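Notes from hallway chat w/ T.B., transcribed later so I don't forget. T.B. wanted the structure written out for a chain they're using in a teaching module, and asked if we could keep both sequence and structure tokens in one place. Agreed to drop them here.
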Amino acid sequence: MIRTPLRPLARILQARQKGENPDRIERENIRLRHEEMRDKMRQRAESRLLFVGVFFVLAFTMVGARMTVLASSEAVEPRASTSGANIVAQRSDIVDRNGRVLATNLITNSLYAQPHLMIEPKRAAKELVAIFPDLNLERLNKDFSGSRKFLWIKKKLSPEQMQAVHDIGDPGLLFGPREMRLYPNGKLAAHVLGGASFGREGVHSAEVIGTAGVEKAFDNYLRDPAMDGAPLRLSLDMTIQAASRQVLEGGMKLMNAKGATSILMDVHTGEVISMISLPDFDPNTRPNGLIKGDPSDSPLFNRAVQGVYELGSTFKIFAAAQALDIGLVNPNTMINTKGPMQKGRFRIRDFHNYGPQLSVTDIIVKSSNIGTARMALDIGAKRQKEFLKSLGFFDSTPVELVEANGAKPLLPKKWADIHTMTVSYGHGMAASPLHLAAAYSTMVNGGTLVKPTLLKQQTVEKGPRVISERTSAQARTMLREVVKRGTASFARVPGYEVGGKTGTADKPKPKGGYYKDKVIATFASAFPMSDPKYVLIVTLDEPSENSGKKPRRTAGWTAVPVAAEMIRRTAPLLGLRPELDRGELSKVVNTASE
């Protein structure tokens, strides 16, 4: 900075030559300098005043805008902020084949506490226990008086419970919005749906994840935001499911059974229209699994898929169909049934003495173990194994349930001749009722393989051929005869041409051997047999029909009446019109011209 001197030498000399006073020059320069300084200070002060003015205008504008927002918005309780990424809680609905909701989402609230904000923790704990009796007062008092800054109290609240907690009035009790899974039909289809629980959790949301059934099998699909909320459509029909469950539950009680299961399947698509396992549970309040004991005693156990049983004489139709298909026999071929049949140290007997021989059809109708075993020996172990494998009896069912993977059939370790014989009539090999449903569908639909599915199918795709159409027609005729004049006579449902095969197998003991008074009773049926559309499997665990002098445990007395009532109730709901049995057309008399 260059400063002008107050007494410049040149001007002083010039003033002295003219006789002027040099001091006037100094005073004039001082005056000019002071004026310059005043101008700069004035300019600086004006700039500062402008800045302060603008600042206050902006500040008052922001305060006014915030007050306007607060005045126009709905009053809500302040909530503690959360850190981290938001949890995506949205989950798609699950619906039946007709669009009825089986599983959906419900917006509710969770309850948590911040003890350091609580005013009266002991009073709050006491009132919380009064609202939620399952809470422990001593534990709450300990948590509220400790060093914890955050504490979950309840993950799900009803509106009434939320209001009761709100009335406590303690600022340390806070609510967080929560999306939960709701199953509006309760126990209906519980084993198929499985259930859901919470995964990652935060104050403002929680991740809903599948824990069992289709909820777990399709967990990625149901949580995928790209699906844009599109529901998962199952093959189940809830009207059929409700009617079937009512009949099966009543039949289970009437027959004094420990448990029961039923499967209704479309013979062409493999769609499972109804699947029931009793006892069952409510997926809204899914219970814990058993820690010890028999897993099948748990209501979580899905007998239709996880239950691996010896299914008895229901297997006989497979031996007969294979023998027919490879040309060993025809329906009228006579087979030696004289007994007992000796094989090494083993003896095979029939329930009744059926005489020295029976036709192949009558072996199925009368359920002869000896006749079936002789056909199996002629077929041979190798061909028998290949045939049963082609029907899916060597692998877990491909149905869309996580529980199905662990339900692989139990097969003989060494497939000797004795195993060939016993497997032919359903002993020495165990499979699930769902395996049986798929195999019977293959038997009656014309001979093409069926794979069970819980998803609604838009098109029908035929599987590989297992037996010829001719063999399938012969098998249908035999199964129809079983109902007409055989062990399943109680399955006659007028107008629906029911055919099927009974199976009663002694229940194995945990440590080897078989119980004498405990059985698995199964009836595998199809209808209408002139043009099969559905297969129905009914299995009862330890049934006993006690109306007579002695308990009757065979499938003909236990599982068959239950299946017949189920068909009688559900066939009209399936859109099947009752028709006159083709065998009775000859009895119709035309009286119009008389």
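Follow-up for T.B.: Residues 239-285+305-583 form a domain with the Beta-lactamase fold (CATH 3.40.710.10). Might be a good example for the class.
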